[in-house]
Write a structure and sequence with these properties.
single chain, 118 residues, mainly alpha, 95% helix
Length: 118
């Protein structure tokens, strides 16, 4: 019976060790699975952030192109307006000169028509 008791004790010890090993193994497996899942979630979040940044970069690049075209058009318009303003200023100066000449001519004609009595 000692032998049977020893065998039963050994079997119980092996069974207890097997249960402890199974529990420890399950815990390690769950921890590893949780860590892998967290790493996967973090990697997915980083990938989503990178994709979002690339999309935003593409959108901003397209908008920058549109703004550059609009700016170029405005600069051309400003150049045309500046040229037109210079042309009008020159024309205004010529008209002033012409008016002064006409006023001088009118003054001479009036003097010829109505000479001042000396």
């Amino acid at each position: 019976m000692d032998s049977l008791t020893n065998t039963a004790s050994e079997l119980f010890g092996y069974a207890a060790a097997a249960v402890v090993a199974a529990v420890v193994g399950a815990q390690k497996l769950l921890k590893g699975w949780s860590r892998d899942r967290l790493e996967r979630v973090a990697a997915d979040a980083q990938t989503a952030a990178v994709i979002g940044l690339r999309e935003e970069n593409d959108r901003l690049s397209a908008q920058n192109g549109t703004l550059a075209e609009a700016l170029n058009e405005m600069q051309l318009r400003v150049a045309r307006i500046a040229g037109e303003a210079a042309r009008l200023a020159e024309e205004n100066l010529q008209l002033k000169t012409e008016i002064e000449q006409l006023q001088a001519q009118i003054t001479r004609l009036i003097a010829q028509i109505h000479p001042k009595e000396a």
